[in-house]
Amino acid sequence: MSSRTAPRSVAIVGSGPAGLYAAEGLARKHPDLRIDILERLPTPFGLVRSGVAPDHQGTKAIQRQFGKLLQRPGLRFLGNVEVGRDVALDELRAAYDAVILAIGAALDRRLGIPGEDLPGVYGSGAFVGWYNGHPDWRHLDPRLDGPSVAIIGNGNVAVDVARVLAKSSAEMAASDICAHAAAVIAAAPLAEIWLVGRRGPAEASWTPVELAELGRLERAAPVVDSADIPAVIEEADPRLLRIREKTLETLRGFAAAPPDGKRIRLHFLFNAAPVEILGAGRAERLRLARRRTGEAFEIRASTVITAIGYRCHGSAGAPLDAERGIVANVEGRVAPGLWVVGWAKRGPSGTIPTNRAESFAVAEAVAAELAQVNAPKPGPDVLDHLLAARGVTVVDHPAWLRIEAAEAAHARAGAPREKFATLAELLAAARAEDAPTSSSHERAQLNAPRR
Ligand code: NAP
């Protein structure tokens, strides 16, 4: 085979939506391409598995489509392989004609206010990872022992966190929330959840459908001060105007709803910027400043969850744009043969479909670059040798299917799966061993009849 016709190879680092859509874009147009998808966890799908709310199973259904993609000839899934630990980025670049980083934005942005490091304060990445079974956060053990939780931020992640905390066990029964988290939330003595926005309701970045869900909860009722809702808003973009008007209409509905006997009050607090988290050895109160007057006031909050966005850690060794918290790039191009997609490329914005068009566009640019390659690099064999020599346990696609089957088999009645949330459990399931799980005790508790 001449070097012109020898297959080209691409390594994609990260198996979330952005990486998988890049793989799909490349595979569709170039079926001969050899594509390896490296993932540091034993499980694929990134935020579809560990970010999307456990009660939004409709959104998670995209996993089926992604699962089919992983079975494509020429494409391999290599789970439990971390770039920067098991293989260096430079080694990958030497082996593959192109490397695409799809490493997401795994670090919580910080508020930069005093008290942020007190026990009881959590970033949404950690908190969501905890209830969604991300092994990094299995042992977060967040304090949910007080009546009042403050969630900072007015985006969809803040809404997700508020809803997961506010829903009853019955409402979460068909979700895939991890048993360890479901048990803690069910036992929490929650009476009030504050959704804190530093700007007004018209500037909130949540979407109206997600917001409206907060008005239909069994044990929680929204509380909105109608004085916070402007009568008219100015917005030049007609699409944004419609979204914002829908938000205001939903909030007006919340404000007008008669009081009811629900246990949890879901307070919407607008135009209130966090100034300090106060407490003796742990979070107890949140001090805020009113936007227009600067007047300071406090709310009680024994748990504070910040849902204010994320930044890329860049641990794969790629150049970082520290200010924006992304991998430095121009339209996805980082350096010759090195590309970036998804949140690591543009920052933490957009939904799953946003990644489709964007990753397809980067895939086109990668393919154009590959067409210029005269001497293909050695490809996947080099990686296989490196990983074997280093004793790395690769979780391939059949092994992932064993994990998936075991999680389904462990599910409580009505739930799609019970995720394994530690590496030991995941790797045992990948080997098809019947390892005792740390979750089994909690699962038994969850299934026990309530007194
Ligand atoms: P986001 O939409 O960017 O919201 C971040 C929020 O944090 C904003 O309200 C922002 O206020 C606020 N914030 C930032 N810095 C702050 C500070 N220092 N003090 C107080 N507030 C601060 O981000 P996200 O909620 O993390 O969501 C990330 C992306 O995932 C979004 O595109 C979202 O739509 C998507 N997502 C979608 C779904 C869904 O479709 N169901 C679910 C989850 C996430 P300002 O506007 O004032 O900056």
Overview of the molecule:
- The chain has 451 residues and is α/β, with parallel strands linked by helices.
- Helix content is 34%, strand content 18%.
- The strands form five sheets. A six-stranded mixed β-sheet has the order 3-2-1-4-19-18, sandwiched between helices. A six-stranded parallel β-sheet has the order 6-14-7-8-10-9.
- Helix 1 packs across helix 12, helix 8 packs across helix 16 and helix 14 packs across helix 15.
- The C terminus is likely disordered.
- The site of NADP nicotinamide-adenine-dinucleotide phosphate (NAP) has 24 residues, from helix 7.
Task: Please summarize what this structure is.
With 451 residues, the chain is of the alpha/beta class.
List keywords for this structure.
451 residues; alpha/beta; 6-stranded mixed beta sheet; 16 helices; 19 strands; 34% helix; binds NADP nicotinamide-adenine-dinucleotide phosphate
Please give the number of β-strands.
19
The outline comes out as: globular
The helicity comes to 25-40%
- What is the CA-CA span between the terminal residues? 72 Å
- Cofactors and ligands present? NADP nicotinamide-adenine-dinucleotide phosphate
As residue ranges, the low-confidence spans are 435-451
The helix-and-strand class reads alpha/beta
Largest β sheet strand count, sense and barrel closure: 6 strands, mixed
| C-alpha Rg (nearest Å) | 23 Å
Summed over residues and divided by their number, the pLDDT gives a mean of: 93
User: How many helix segments?
Assistant: 16
- The amount of beta strand, in percent, is 15-25%
Write down the oligomeric state: single chain
